[in-house]
């Protein structure tokens, strides 16, 4: 299935989408690509807001803002995601039994990749509206959708791992 179809299916039935991804027996490079693609799209989503901020406050140039965002999103965020995946794996092992680290990373990275279309919309909103309550509220919606998909995927992991084992 294509990436866009998988993302659309994730919005409709996240547990089924995660099961389908795990059934394809992904390897670490594919999971890493999901994570890096998500980080790249998040970086792109920041551009409109950074441009607006640089226009409103020229003391920090657009290029400086882009450099900071590039470092934070493309270099630091993947490291944080791997650390978070390790913590999630430990929690799942303690609560539900053994799960594969690759599957936990897949669920985390896929959840992040699935919400990047919403993050792109939020980036556009922040460029047009600035820092308003509506943009902040939409940010909470994005976070809620991410946590919903992540939670559904993590609930699915013990069942999938039990079926494999």
Secondary-structure blueprint of this entry?
Layout: H1 3-12, H2 14-23, H3 28-56, H4 62-96, H5 101-129, H6 133-164
Helix pairs in contact: 1-2, 1-5, 2-6, 3-4, 3-5, 4-5, 5-6
Strand content: under 5%
- Count of discrete structural domains: 1
* Portion in helices: over 70%
Class by helix and strand content?
Answer: mainly alpha
Strand segment tally: 0
Q: What is the radius of gyration?
A: 17 Å
Counting DSSP H or I runs of 4 or more residues, the number of helices is: 6
Q: What is the 3D shape?
A: elongated
Distance from N terminus to C terminus (CA atoms, Å) equals 25 Å
Order of helices and strands: HHHHHH
- The low-pLDDT segments are none
Q: pLDDT average, as an integer? A: 90
The largest pleated sheet is described as: none
Describe this structure in words.
The chain has helices at about 5-10, 15-25, 30-55, 60-95, 100-130, 135-165. About 90% of the residues lie in helices and about 0% in strands. The relative contact order is 0.15. It has one domain. The mean pLDDT is about 90.
Give a brief description.
The protein has 165 residues and is an all-alpha fold. Helix content is 88%, strand content 0%.
Features:
mainly alpha, elongated, 6 helices, about 160 residues, single chain
